[in-house]
Amino acid sequence: MPDRGIIFPAALRNTRGRGLLAAFLVLGMAGLGVSAAPPAKKEDPGSAPAKKAADRPGKAKPPDKPQAPGPARGPVSADDDVDDDPASPAFKKISPANGAATPAAAVEPPGPRQGDKAEPLSAKLKAIVDGAGGRTGEWGVKALSLSRGEVLFAHRAGEPMNPASNLKLVSSAAALTALGPDFQFSTGLYTGTTPVNGVIDGDLFVFGDGDPSLVSERLWFLAGQIRSLGIRRIEGDIIVDDSWFAPPHDNPAWKKDSMSSQSYTAPYGALSLNYNAVAITVLPGEKDGAKPIVTVDPEIPYLPVKNTARTISKGRSRLRLETQPLGDKTQVVVAGTLRIDSEGRKAYRKIFHPPLFTGWGIHEYLKLRGVTVKGKVKTAVFDRNRMFELYTFRSEPLAVILRPINKVSSNFTAEQVLKALGAKIKGSPGTWKGGLSAVEDFLEKAGLPRGSYIMTNGSGLSEDSRFSADQLVRVLEYMFRQPVLFPEYASSLSIAGADGTLRSRMTRLDPPWRVRGKTGSLDNVASLSGYIQTAGGDWVAFSAMINNHRLAYRQATGLLDRIAEAIAGDTTPPAPGFLGKPGPRPPPAKVK
Question: 257-295 as b/e, with b when 16 or more CB fall inside 10 Å?
Fold first, then answer.
């Protein structure tokens, strides 16, 4: 769960500082230690062109459960977009291509390795891939020693496959490389005239450049800053300008779900709040037949509630929670029945007008901090250069914002960053096309020619995206050899047995956090890619993807975990001069 402090809390600074220092010492120095190693052998990308793979039919399906998880307090969190855990209500199911399997690519076989452990590791990995039976569909696997540049294992590694959320490894690497780890988003507040005696005699103008981390707690801080400037009253309206992003607000790759109220389909905007979702809490009424108690967060005029539900003493709870567009507002609809002895229900649903939603949030939080706003919220485009800058709120650095993308698989954050990347690199207004073009520039530097892959969005929540295991490993290897960027990139990944979508996986490894990776799950698709420090002290970049499988979720992820565990258990030493074995498990912290 990303930190919810107002801005740079001490705990975040200390934790991040220690994490980055450790990552730099263990990973960055390791990358420097292999600078003289021979480059990785390039594999044939395969005889199955990526473009043909996109033509296979697919079918979108709704998620298993309707609501999305969130923090203990405040708005919906990045967990709203976790698509890798079927226990997560936001577990999104999309069918991969269901056509005939493409021919296996001409992949270079594993090269010779030092020591007598080479064949056992290769045999172990082959047994996992071959021994699971016909229900596993098509596999694409590659493991590369980063100290020696040797391919340790490859199985159909050049074949284009649906990577699911492993695609976030690509979009986050491109953003970190192009924008830098210290890049910050900003939300600016402007006035047409200088305030006099605490009064703004006119409108308050708000401009955003796509901050995906603006949440209610930060609006409270922002409103407090305005109050601290001596502002007591705003005579006009709040004018919001989100022209930094071009329409549409809905991702074109998700067109089948554009009218769903599920939070994973939330729209995007240069001004966005709380991941563009509303938290709805429903508690039973006091007696049989009474209406349930409904609260929404944030509680603002933009979110009217229509409650037709009933409290019942017998029968099953059958509650329906959804949102609907209602003019320039989003209406919360609560219908059905809720048992009187129920603990209630909490769900997250998307809103439909990001700039208005954000503007009304600012309107109400200003009121809570003692600033009266006489007008309403409107949208318009204005010239900031002719305005008086009242206050600009800046987000945490990009290195921190990337964590919800890769640790908890936040689709919303990934797409916001992609559009912002397009605006910054290709010019405003930001578009998905511009963002994808900027990613293509990065991939070309990493050795992936244009046209050798298919990327339709930044999150991987798509039927059409295609990358091979070889291509994902090349991205991982490229980032590993960037000594300034790699510590930040590695720290954004989920740590096995510790956090994110890998928090409960591979816990039998000692220590489990030798695996840092990105998970991915769609209907009949499972993937896992990242970095592993082996028992012998080597570092390995790996990617394992399964498409068109007919396994239960736990079965599919279990096979991927076995791949990672087998690599982690390899005792082959790294190239000379490479940093050695992982240190011992630290003792548990004492609580005073």
Answer: beebbbbbbbbbbbbbbbbbbbbbebebbeeeeebbebe
Q: How far apart are CA 421 and CA 99, in angstroms?
A: 34
The rounded distance, in Å, linking the Cα atoms of 157 and 205 is 52
The two three-digit tokens of residue 380, written as one number: 């318009």
Q: Give the other-Cβ count within 10 Å of 62's Cβ.
A: 12
SS3 annotation, 558-580: HHHHHHHHHHHCCCCCCCCCCCC
Contact 480, 26 (CB under 8 A): no
Edge-to-edge strands, sheet with 525-533: 150-155, 138-145, 539-547, 525-533, 515-522, 494-495
> How far apart (Å, rounded) are the C-alpha atoms in residues 515 and 380?
48
What is the rounded distance in angstroms from the CA atom of residue 48 to the CA atom of residue 156?
Answer: 10
| In contact, 163 and 518? CB cutoff 8 Å | no
Torsion angle of the four alpha carbons 227, 231, 232, 234, in this order, in degrees rounded to the nearest 10:
-120
Give me the amino acid identity at 440: E
Burial class (CB in 10 A: 0-12, 13-18, 19+), 436: buried
* Alpha helix ranges (H) inside 136-286: 168-179, 216-228
Q: What is the pTM of this model?
A: 0.79
- At 106-147, the pLDDT tens digits run 333 334 444 444 458 899 999 999 887 667 789 999 999 999
Burial class of residue 96 in the structure, from the number of CB atoms within 10 Å of its CB (0-12 exposed, 13-18 middle, 19+ buried): buried
